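Quick one, probably user error.
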């Protein structure tokens, strides 16, 4: 309850707050004993004003110092993610971890745009959260519950929703991310698609991404497509002969720096070349862009043992494969079933070479 004070009384309150006790006592003695000989009215007022002003500035300096310390302390607190306090009764690592991940976002204020914009806090919080979710110790049911708690906080704040949607995409959906995990991203997408706070336009985009992810998953037969060899002959993925039940499917663009780096790594990999020469592996490299002149002038840079073709942009137009980042590498078996989907070349090597 906030009470209002008459103007005169609040002035007396301020004087008593800022003027030292000895000055107040002297004032009372002067006024009570009517010692006007030493102090005329002007002198009393001047003395009072000077005393109050001096003391006021001293008190203000002290208050400013305290306020500065408070602000510094608040900034220090805000420089760390607001982790939940784990009850002392939980002593086992498994119990403490379960509590931490279940209550991870309890103290995070999604309505605080300054906090959401503080990448040192927010991004580090996301990274730690995803690391726990993906460490292999949580059942899918627990992952779903944790993601539900997370989404329950961010979905109601439009700005936080925008920032975290992008952050989750960057960390879970980008093959170049160390936290790339389509499984977790699917759980996140499904939860956001259920939200009543996400608009229809955004849901349409999320649904498209979800459908794209669900294509060409490990264990499924890869989507068929048409490709053309440099001589113009027409072929399909399903018609392509596969040596020893292994097909390395590479979608690339010679003008893409990342593609160039990966291709150079593959070209200089003697173990890969040995597998191809021995007939243990088929490499199918497909150019997916529209500049056929660029493609034709770079074909000679690739090994003649590889099958090199262009889809004439059919894959992108029909959304047959998720080509969000290039190059995109798949490992298929002889029936064109997916073994590894959109993984790094090192991951491919660990499966077929070592």
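Nope, works fine. Designed sequence:
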């Amino acid at each position: 309850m906030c009470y209002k004070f008459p103007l005169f009384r609040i002035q007396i309150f301020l004087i008593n707050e800022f003027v030292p006790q000895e000055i107040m006592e002297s004032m009372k003695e002067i006024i009570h004993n009517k010692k006007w000989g030493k102090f005329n009215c002007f002198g009393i007022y001047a003395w009072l004003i000077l005393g109050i002003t001096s003391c006021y500035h001293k008190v203000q300096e002290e208050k400013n110092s305290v306020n500065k310390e408070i602000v510094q302390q608040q900034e220090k607190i805000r420089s760390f993610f607001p982790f939940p306090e784990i009850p002392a009764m939980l002593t086992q690592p498994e119990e403490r971890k379960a509590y931490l991940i279940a209550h991870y976002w309890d103290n995070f204020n999604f309505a605080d745009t300054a906090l959401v914009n503080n990448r040192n806090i927010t991004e580090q919080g996301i990274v730690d959260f995803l690391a726990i979710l993906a460490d292999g110790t949580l059942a899918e049911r627990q992952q779903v519950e944790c993601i539900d708690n997370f989404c329950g906080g961010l979905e109601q704040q439009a700005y936080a929703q925008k920032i975290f949607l992008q952050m989750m995409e960057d960390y879970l959906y980008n093959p170049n991310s160390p936290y790339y995990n389509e499984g977790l991203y699917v759980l996140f997408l499904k939860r956001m698609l259920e939200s009543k706070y996400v608009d229809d336009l955004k849901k349409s985009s999320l649904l498209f991404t979800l459908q794209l992810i669900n294509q060409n998953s490990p264990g499924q037969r890869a989507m068929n497509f048409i490709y053309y060899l440099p001589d113009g002959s027409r072929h399909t993925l399903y018609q392509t002969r596969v040596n020893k039940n292994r097909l390395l499917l590479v979608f690339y663009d010679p003008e893409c720096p990342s593609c160039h780096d990966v291709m150079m790594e593959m070209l200089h990999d003697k173990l890969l070349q040995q597998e191809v020469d021995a007939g243990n592996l088929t490499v199918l490299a497909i150019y997916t862009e529209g500049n056929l002149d660029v493609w034709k002038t770079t074909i000679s840079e690739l090994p003649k043992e590889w099958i090199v073709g262009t889809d004439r942009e059919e894959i992108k137009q029909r959304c047959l494969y998720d080509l969000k980042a290039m190059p995109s590498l798949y490992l298929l078996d002889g029936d064109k079933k997916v073994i590894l989907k959109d993984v790094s070349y090192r991951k491919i090597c660990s499966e077929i070479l070592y």
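The radius of gyration is 35 Å.
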